[in-house]
Amino acid sequence: MSQATEAFGTVLTAMVTPFTKDGSKVDYDALAKLANDLVDLGNNGLVVSGTTGESPTTDEHEKLEILKVVKSTVGNRAKVVAGAGSNDTAHSVLLAKDAVKAGADGLLVVTPYYNKPPQDGIIAHMTTVADSTDLPVMLYDIPGRAGVAISTESMIKLSKHPKIIANKDAKGDLWAASEVMAKTDLAYYSGEDALNLALLSLGATGVVSVTGHIVADRHKAMVEAVKANDLATAQTINNGLVPVTDGIMNRVGGAIMVKAALDLLGRPGGGFLRLPLIPATQAQRDTLRTDLIAGGFKL
Q1: How far apart are CA 247 and CA 263, in angstroms?
Q2: Staple partner for 121: which of 27, 63, 117, 233, CB 3.0–4.6 Å?
Q3: Which H or E run includes 143?
Q4: Tell me, what's the pLDDT at 270?
């Protein structure tokens, strides 16, 4: 078992955060039920307080409690990775230290967003957060949201840090991923559901998924098929996932549509969001229903 697999698992879902109807409170009961469901579905890792968890709208107390509830619910059945990303390095360090107190198994640290630091600033930020605790760190490279990518050269430098052992890749640059995997021991996780099979085929260790809320069982089967060099089976699984990925990720995207999907399927965690995110419209839900049916769900 690789260091990253031991630290993070192979099939992870970036969890939504369930809220009460008016969005004023976290629904911790629904959170616990969702965490348990996700492990039963096939996830051996869960990410809390990431973007899909609407982390910009939860405060430090809520983040800490979310982590505690998920960790106490899943116990040793899955790794629990805490989002510790911010565009303020001191704040990221605070989140990382809080994660230790709440029993996190690892940290997910996104590229500082909006302020677009230079590459040396990104390296300094990631290194400072990694130095602040003993937890293993998964970088999160998502230039479409952060506004700046972690360059190949920076990724190679960061891979030398003993606690930085993985990267969640949502860059959409398969060559850059290939180059880093060839030149470092950094474990790659697909952070873009549309590219899960492509990155796994190039050597990625696993996935950190949004659609995993409802199809982690198929992700698990695809990861295992690639590991067994059974590309035909992996392709068949991936082809069947296209409508699901399209419906959740490509039409409106992210927390809005995955919460709508959970709601349509009668699963905990669906429905309510915090502004500036708003629930899916009826027309969007109707289209999503069609996509889910095309993806093999009975609704």
Answers
A1: 14
A2: 117
A3: helix 143-146
A4: 87
The bridge status of strand 79-83 relative to strand 45-48 is: parallel
Any idea which residues carry the catalytic annotation?
Answer: 140, 168
| Residue 249 contacts residue 194 (beta carbons within 8 Å) | yes
**pLDDT tens digits, residue range 3-13?**
888 889 999 99
**Residue 26: CA count within 13 A, CB half-sphere:** 25
Phi, then psi, of 187 in degrees rounded to 5? -80, 135
The model's pTM: 0.95
Euclidean distance between CA atoms 195 and 34, whole angstroms: 25
User: pLDDT tens-digit profile of 117-133?
Assistant: 999 999 999 999 999 99
Partners of 190 in the β-ladder: 169, 207
For residue range 173-198, list pLDDT tens digits in order.
999 999 999 999 999 999 999 999 99
